[in-house]
Amino acid sequence: MCLPEENFFHMHNWVGGRFSVWGAVGLPLVLSLGPEVFLEFLHGAAEMDHHSLTAPLEKNLPATLAMLAYWNAKSLDISAHCLLPYDERLRVIVPWLQQLEMESLGKTHTPEGNLIPGKTGQAVWGANGNEGQHSFYQWLREGTRCASIDVIWSEVPGHRYAELYRVLLANARAQTEALVMRDPDSSCFNAVTSIMMDAVTPRRLGSIMAMYEHKTTMLGTLFGINPFDQPGVELGKRLSRRMERGEDPHTALAKEFNL
């Protein structure tokens, strides 16, 4: 392409897709919402970056979340983590966090190839809290397995229906309490964390996303995992290329593992 170098948006190969929204990948946000909005988003992330680097451990939000997740997975044998945003504007954060944590932490070996004893990353799932109440909260309350849960809400609505939002927040707070309390005969309990935002703004969204990024990388350190690769995904890609060339699936798999 006959374009000057300064007209290219560089995407560094050492930045994985799940960590890339802060760079050139964020260009669609700039084009659709404007540069001012994107800069506010970046400022929020930068504030959380600074907090994660400088805040003492007992007040460090990402570190606290990482240590809770490590305890839940290793000591309490909780293998599933559920994210419940009580705000329609935050519903897409669920699949984003699912990719971030499961692709980063869904591993069994250290970077040196040593098997990690015990559990590592959790299965991450969830939905808009108001919808989840009518689908899977029954399982969360009385199912045979327990979960760790993040309930997120904002004190300020994104619409003019203040009374309806008041009811929504009442549900968020009530369900937070209800999800902790299981049947007295249950052998386990849900580990519930409440995350309250003062408002859903680009700056706060940037902070929340950066908070979860730092939580994930800190968890990688605690587990002894490299959170920046995804070898389990790469195998499927290599097999698909072999099958595109007409190789038998079993033969392709045998070649990958030198069988």
Structure characterization notes:
There is one protein chain. The longest helix has 22 residues, at 202-223. This protein has one domain: Rossmann fold (3-Layer(aba) Sandwich). The protein is an alpha/beta fold. The protein contains 10 helices and 4 strands.
Q: Could you give a quick summary of the protein structure above?
A:
This protein has 259 residues and is of the alpha/beta class. Helix content is 49%, strand content 9%. It has a single domain (28-228), classed as 3-Layer(aba) Sandwich (Rossmann fold), CATH 3.40.50.10490.
Could you spell the SSE succession in H and E letters? HHHEHEHHEHEHHH
Q: Structural class given helices, strands, pairing?
A: alpha/beta
Instruction: Tell me roughly what share of residues is in helical segments.
Output: 40-55%
Number of helical segments with 4 or more residues: 10
Shape: globular
Strand content: 5-15%
